[in-house]
Amino acid sequence: MLLYNTIDREKQKFVPQTKNKVNMxxxxxxxxxxxxxGHARSTVVFDVLVRYLRHIGYELTxxxxxxxxDDKIINRAARENADPDEIADNFIQAYYQDMDxxxxxxxxxxxxxxxxxxxxxELTQKLEKKGYAYVTDSGDVYFRVRKYKDYGRLSxxxxxxxxxxxxxxxxxxxxxxxxxxxxxSAKPEEPKWDSPWGPGRPGWHLECSVMSEKYLGLPLDxxxxxxxxxxxxxxxxxxxxxxxxxxTFAKYWVHNGFVRVNQEKMSxxxxxxxxxxxxxxxxxxxxxxxxxxxxxxxxxxxxxxEAMQEAEKGIKRIYSAKQAVERETHKDSWKKxxxxxxxxxxxxxxxxxxxxxxxxxxxxxxxxxxIFNLVxxxxxxxxxxxxxxxxEARDFFLRFLSDLNSWSEPLGILGGDASGFLTELKLLQAxxxxxxxxKIDSLVSERSEARQAKDFSRxxxxxxxxxxxxxxxxxxxxxxxxxxE
Length: 485
Description:
Layout: E1 2-5, E2 10-13, E3 21-26, H1 37-55, E4 59-64, H2 71-79, H3 84-101, H4 117-129, E5 133-135, E6 141-143, H5 159-164, E7 180-185, E8 200-202, H6 204-216, E9 220-226, H7 230-245, E10 250-256, E11 259-261, E12 264-265, H8 276-280, H9 285-293, E13 301-303, H10 305-329, H11 341-359, H12 364-383, H13 391-411, H14 418-433, H15 437-452, H16 456-468, E14 471-476, E15 479-484
Parallel strand pairs: 3-4, 3-9, 9-10, 11-13
Antiparallel strand pairs: 1-2, 5-6, 6-7, 7-8, 11-12, 14-15
Helix pairs in contact: 2-3, 4-6, 4-7, 6-7, 9-10, 10-12, 10-13, 10-14, 11-12, 12-13, 15-16
C-alpha cells in the first residue's frame, strides 16, 4: 500500500515498524461546539484508513483524543455562565451522536487532555532541562523554536517568513515571536492545575504529544489530521516531542484536504457554517459519508446542496442495482445456457482495480468508480432476459453481492438493506418536498384499482397528478411502486 507522506511530499510504500502491527494517532475535536462538515470529512477519512488497514490484515491500535481544556471551551463557558467541564462533556457526547450516525468506529483509546496533566508537566520539565523551554516571570512556559533545527520541515514553512507574519499578543513575554506556549499561567476564573511554575494549564500542542506517546510510544507509524493542523499544531507537536525524546515522532504524516461550502471557505462570519446535524436534517447519514468519499482525501471538497443531491442519486443507483441483483438470486429455476466469459473477466478486472485504487493512497474516489463499473455490469446481466436465467448468472450475482459486502466493510457504506435504504430515501425526499408519503401511496393504489377496472382515463389523470409532484410510478408483476424522478 502507498500513502502520501506530508513530510516528504511524496507517496511512499507503507511499511510499519513492527510486521503486521500498526499504531496510529489522529487529532480529535476541541469540544466547544457541534461538529461541522470539516470534522465529518477528517473523521470519515481516518475511519476508512483504520478500516482498510484492518481489512488487508494489519493489527491496528488507533488513538484519537479529545481536547477538553482550551480557550474556546473557556470562552463559551463564560458566555453561557457554565462550567467548562460541562461544556466539554456536552459536546463530546454530541460528537459521539453525530459520528455514530455516520458509522464511525470508536477509536481503541480515546483519552481526554485533562486526564494527562501530570504527564504534560513532566514533558515540559524535560524540555526545560534540555534548554528547549523557558519560563517567563508571569509563569508561562514557552518552547524555543529556533533551537529545534528541523522546524518547518513538516509544513514546508520558512522560519524567517513565519516570523514576519506572527503577532505577539499583549502580555506575552516571549524571547522570540516564533516561540509557542507549553504551559499557560492561570487567569482568574479559568481551569487550573498546580505546576512547578505556578497554577496554570497546558498548551494545546503539548496535549497530543503526551497522549500519543503515552499510549503508542515513539515513533508513531501514522499521525493524521486535517490539512489545517499541519501548521502550527502538528509542526509544534513534532518539534517538542523530538526535542524531548531524541526520537522520530511519526514515520508517516497523513492530512486530508479542506472542505469549502458553495466554493467558499467555511466561516461563521460568512454565514455558511454548516454542521453535521444541519446536513442530516435533509439527507441520510450514509449519503453524507458516500459524498465525503467521492473525492480523493487529499483533494479539496466543495459542499453544496446540489453536490449532496448528486451523491444521493449515485448511492441510490448502487442500492437499486443491489436490490435488483438480490431479487434475481431468489429465483427457483436456472437454465444451462451460454454465459459470456468476458463478463466474468470484466468482473475480475473490476475487483483487481478496486484493490489497486484503495492501495494507491486510499483512493476512495477511484474505488467508488469501480463500484459503479460493477453496477453497470450487474445491470447489464439483470436486463438481459436470456443472460439472467443462466446458471452461471447466478454465480455472477452471488459474486456481485459478495464484492459489495466485502467493499462495504472498509468504506463503511453500502452494507445496509437495499429495500430499507430506498424506502427511507423516499420518505426523506417527500419530507424535503413537503409531500405526504401516505397521500402518494393512496394515489398509487387508486391508480392501480382504476387500471384493473380498465378506467384508463381515471388512471391517466392520477398519473398526471403524481407527475406534477415529481413522482414516477413503475408497474411490475408485484404491483406498482413509486419513486421521485
